[in-house]
Amino acid sequence: MKNYDIAVYGLGVMGSSLAKNMINKGFKVAAFSKSEAEKERFALNGKEDSYVVCSTKEQMLSSLKSPRIIFLMITAGAPVDSVIEDLLPALEPGDIVIDGGNSYFKDTSRRYNDLKEKGICYMGVGVSGGEKGALLGPSMMAGGSKEGWEASKHILKTIAAYYKDEPCCTYIGPEGAGHYVKMVHNGIEYAILQLIAETYHIMKYGLNLEHDSILGTFENWKNSKLDSYLIDISVTVLEKMDEDNTPLVDKILDVAEQKGTGKWTLEEAIDRGVYIPTIFEAVFARSFSSNKEIRVQGNKHLSHSGSPYTLDDYEKKLGEALLAGVIASYAQGMALIAKASEENGWKIDLSELASVWREGCIIRSVLLSEVKESLTEEKENLMLSEAFHYITKLEPALREVVTKTSSAAIAIPALASALNYYDYFRMEQMPVNFVQALRDCFGAHTYKRVDKEGYFHTEWEK
Ligand code: 6PG
Prior knowledge:
Elements: E1 6-9, H1 13-24, E2 29-32, H2 36-41, E3 51-53, H3 57-62, E4 69-72, H4 78-87, E5 96-99, H5 105-117, E6 121-128, H6 130-136, E7 139-144, H7 146-159, E8 162-163, E9 166-167, E10 169-173, H8 177-206, H9 211-221, H10 229-239, H11 261-272, H12 277-289, H13 292-301, H14 314-344, H15 350-356, H16 367-375, H17 391-407, H18 413-426, H19 432-443, E11 447-448, E12 455-456
Parallel strand pairs: 1-2, 1-4, 2-3, 4-5, 5-6, 7-10
Antiparallel strand pairs: 6-7, 8-9, 11-12
Helix pairs in contact: 1-6, 5-8, 8-11, 8-12, 8-14, 9-10, 11-12, 12-18, 14-17, 14-18, 15-16, 17-18
């Protein structure tokens, strides 16, 4: 019977949660997976009339209302191409294929263009919020076919998270625009995770605070401008004790992994010449952490002249430093998206994007309402907006935290990068005039002058 509203292809953790979300919101779902185990596991008690677990992809496709909407929730990369290839002979013009995984945006653009030629509406949708978000309401950044969006938005907007009465789901732009902004969302996520971790590290190893004091500080930050999902779960993590009643976090090896979205964000920033130092430091903190052995050797081999330090009013100062770092991270991510949007002709509405990050996604925070507000000001960078002018009040704390921690020989690259980011925006005079002189001296690369138009070359060594 062709009365199912949508197919969900892929019933892993994210796919089955998303399918259940759809069913709970009143949609009829044709569920399918290539994995027999995933199909057998899929069940939603009391809702049996609202879904069917299809034995074959043919059954899945023939169960759907027109236009047929197929939501793929499968591993990013080659599996998406192989599933599309497998479905293609059975697809018809007007069918809508949605990829909700963390796909590389260039792959999404390619698939969008290939399928467009065949009359199939392809969409790459960034879905954020983890397993819980998928089940209860994720933030969704739709990109690709506008026609596909018009035909599927009643479902996507209904299953999304809500900020007050606004769904955290919107159409971002054509081609891979939806996956692009999800990639940068993850870059910002990496940055904020690293900033929080460095702040924790300062309290534990710089200021030698007791675990309960650190926990209390994070709890207090929940009632400040830092109020966010990542601060909430920082408290959750710090509250968790191991079997021996000591903090579980202390038993976790300091080697962090990554799946690629942070690295893609850096590659994009380099290609587009957008400075995103906090995201850069966060990605490389994970990469550098992987070689624990070299750090153990270095600790013995390299002496230091640092000395212990104190920080009066640490909760306020560290909170302000962290907040400044978070603002700088949003600024960097938004600057990258703005440049990509301009260069790709995507016309992304950044303020609308900030709206859909206010709930459901991993980087959701009270600050995002201010980000939204700042982006309506049409300033070149969020750092220069009136909405964030209060960052000037946070700067003294950020500077004190960075300089004192650095004097204690503790590396806090993400916080330090946020300070550099701030100072770069203030530096009317940068040292690169000297770089230009050197380039011209060794390679006749020429330079511009402050007092005359044009390019100049000097015979420096005569
Ligand atoms: C989300 C998350 C999710 C995942 C990231 C990061 O928005 O729900 O960003 O997509 O956690 O891919 O993963 P890694 O840290 O493993 O790169």
